[in-house]
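WARN retry 2 of 3 for item q-0093 after timeout on previous attempt; input resubmitted unchanged.
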Amino acid sequence: MKSSVCSLVVVSLLIAACSRAEREAADVVTPPGRSSPAPVGSLAARPRVVFLGDSLTAGYGLPKEQSVPSLIQKRLDEEGYGYEAVNHGVSGDTSAGGVSRLDWALTGDVRVLVIELGANDGLRGLPAESTKANLSDIITRAKARGIAVLLTGMEAPPNHGPAYTAQFRQTFADLARDHEVAFVPFYLEGVAGNPSLNIADGIHPNAEGAAIVAKTVWRALQPLLDEDRRARPRRNRGEGADTAGDQ
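OK item q-0093 returned
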């Protein structure tokens, strides 16, 4: 509840500025049809953790190494996890955009998909039913490839009315329950609404804020990685072969 109150405050104050900031950052990653964005890690042969999101994933306003996926890569390396974190954050993207570029994002040996989408849906007041259908499509397609999913929740601004705000929030919890996937109820937990943890636009986390978000994500991500590592020897012996890299 506390995180929800903070998020409602920040998005209500900054909704007008968000769309502009998102558009200005729209060149964060390479669009489909060109070469894939370079993984945050250095060894392209490693199994992947893909972050599919908007500017909050892309790291708008921050050096590349301070984006959440980059911070997760650092944690992976420090703790001896042989994975690479791939940043597929596109500023201004919606859940529909995530659907359209999912196959591109899942290229390679993807073991975990972290979904951070929906903030721009909520800012624009798009139907919560559409957001739910899009995210459900992404989750279903990822799980069909044997990819574990970590879904992160977002809040809608209160100017769309309390009914929409409540429905939007519940969308993420319902998806996590229905699809039985790992869940972070609020991606910006402990960061939203705190000026000292955001860049000048008041929307996107600064370096300190991104570090907090990365810790929040890591707590939910680590169990998925541990489970995948336990399963990897079985896959190497041909038992329950993983087809995630077959494109």
